[in-house]
Specification:
With 356 residues, this protein is of the alpha+beta class. It has 2 helices and 26 strands. The protein has 4 domains: 28-40 and 281-355, conserved putative lor/sdh protein from methanococcus maripaludis s2 fold; 44-53 and 198-276, Efflux pump adaptor protein, beta barrel domain (Elongation Factor Tu (Ef-tu), domain 3, Beta Barrel), CATH 2.40.30.170; 60-87 and 164-195, OB fold (Dihydrolipoamide Acetyltransferase, E2P), CATH 2.40.50.100; 89-162, Helix Hairpins, CATH 1.10.287. Helix content is 19%, strand content 40%. The chain has a 7-stranded antiparallel beta sheet, with no helix packed on it. The longest helix has 35 residues, at 89-123. The relative contact order is 0.21.
Amino acid sequence: MNTFRLAPCISVLGIAFIPGPLIAQAQVQVRVEPVILAPITEQLPLSGSVLSPRYSDLTTQESGLVVSLNVDTGDQVEQGDLLLQLDGELTRLELERLLARQEEAILTYDDARRLADEGRSLINDRNISKSQYETRLATEAKEETKLRQLNTQVRMQQVKYERHKLHAPFSGVIGFRHTEVGEWLGAGNSAMQLVQIDPLRVQANVPERYFGEVRAGTAVTISVDAYPGRPIQARIEKVVMVTDSDTRSFTARVDIPNTDEKLAPGMSAHLVFELGGEGSVPVLQVPADAVVRRGDGSAIVWVVRSDTAQAVPVSIGRRDQQRVEVGSGDLAEGELVVTLGNESLRPGQQVTAIQD
């Protein structure tokens, strides 16, 4: 009789387990880049507005009937252009009367001065009495005073007559017109609105935490919805040193040329401020892809040390388009951080670092 011997084995649910050494964890390849210490430029995007730096409700300094109106809504005017004229006929006639008196006074004064000069030459030779000499000097002084008074009256009347005319105080566009020919316009009442369109002002409210970084000279890129893909490069000209306590913000503004009249007051603007840069303090930076966010909101970077991956907690600061400022007491300039393959790493895992 044939006798069969079964080989010893351990079987669970039909699966045989053969004892053997544990398989070592596989080594992975990762791409790395060095930590650098350098100034960083942060881009701060904000919304703003296009405004006119000069806006005026124009008024006349005299009351009167509007006899001519040379502009309409939307017209462009140059500084000094005559916009409107009031009826100044009575003022003009009074000016003509004063001018006639002025001419007469000039003739009288010239004659009195001639006699006084003659007396000055005769008195030395005693060919004129002292009383006659003094009379001639007094007459000269009196006529000179009368002429000065008339000159002042003429200038005052000329100013009064000119105040019946309204000239453009600066170049711009007529926004609204509040009067018409034949209407009575009271002194101080708005006749029309004048708005400057070149240059225009772009301004934005900046959060107060950037008060020390946004200053005159800060680079800014401006774009408007009307012209997508056509950014305007400029620099901040002025920061208003008053913080709005309601919004906790301050105002930064820049004036930009508008000779082609492609911009208009009231447009919305998108501003991107370039903060930091070459003049700022150097900071530790890593590529943006090196930062791994955890579920609790914290962040780490994987550092390759002695061919093993080590997780280093970091705090995130400013960022530009490619790099991020990081703060950590366990990270140094020149160390290699993982930028590709860091999603599934484990502390102490063996890695092969590949650097461009």
